[in-house]
Amino acid sequence: MTIDLEGIKKIYQIGTQEVAALNGIDLHIKQGEFAALMGPSGSGKSTLMNILGCLDRPTVGSYKLDGKEVAYLGDDDLAKTRNKKIGFVFQNFNLLSRISALDNVALPLVYAGKSRRERAERAYHFLKAVGLDTRANHQPNELSGGQRQRVAIARALVNDPSIIMADEPTGNLDTKSTTEIMKIFIDLHEQGKTIILVTHEPEIAACASRQLLVRDGVITRDAGRGEKMDVV
Ligand code: ADP
Ligand code: MG
User: Which intervals hold domain ABC transporter (predicted)?
Assistant: First the structure.
């Protein structure tokens, strides 16, 4: 699945005020790339991720996912595209607190119209893949931060999307959990998934095969693995 952005701009409207968050992003990402997005706070990383993840639309520009324009789809089609093609992982996990880990992972399959049995089987399979099969019946508040993020990753994987996106997935985690989570992303990359993640940590960006620097709503650097990148 290829990603092609051309001339992407995003202007937020707050009352009569306009905030230009993205000022013309051109970006091509091939299937199987591992891209790390870096850049100062407020530079537009989350805005870009939300557009890439089909959680939001640009104001101007083109976003082609596997050659198909998705930038201006209606709500239902945008949600369908997201559910089928993209797994999204948030900094704050975004799990539902009153249902089990298993039911959280199975949720995208409810929207995809799968049977109860298939939902349970697939959810269990992906919980096992992130090492949490023994926690299937626990609610999020009975799990550590790192475990919650692993549940969120299992949920992102449950529809077998070819692209996984994550906005500061280790931003709220300790070093040990961060290492565990990054090992999962590296494994997924080795399995052929496209990974796009936002991070402030140079050590995390070093896991990626490509490093992108966002500044004032534009990409100011596009570097390969191991090239030194000054963020500030
Ligand atoms: P980053 O993730 O790099 O910190 P963001 O994409 O969150 O940057 O924000 C980019 C700019 O857009 C900032 O000036 C921010 O205040 C503004 N912004 C982000 N989201 C919204 C929103 N929902 N409404 C209005 N302005 C927003
Ligand atoms: Mg952000």
Answer: 3-232
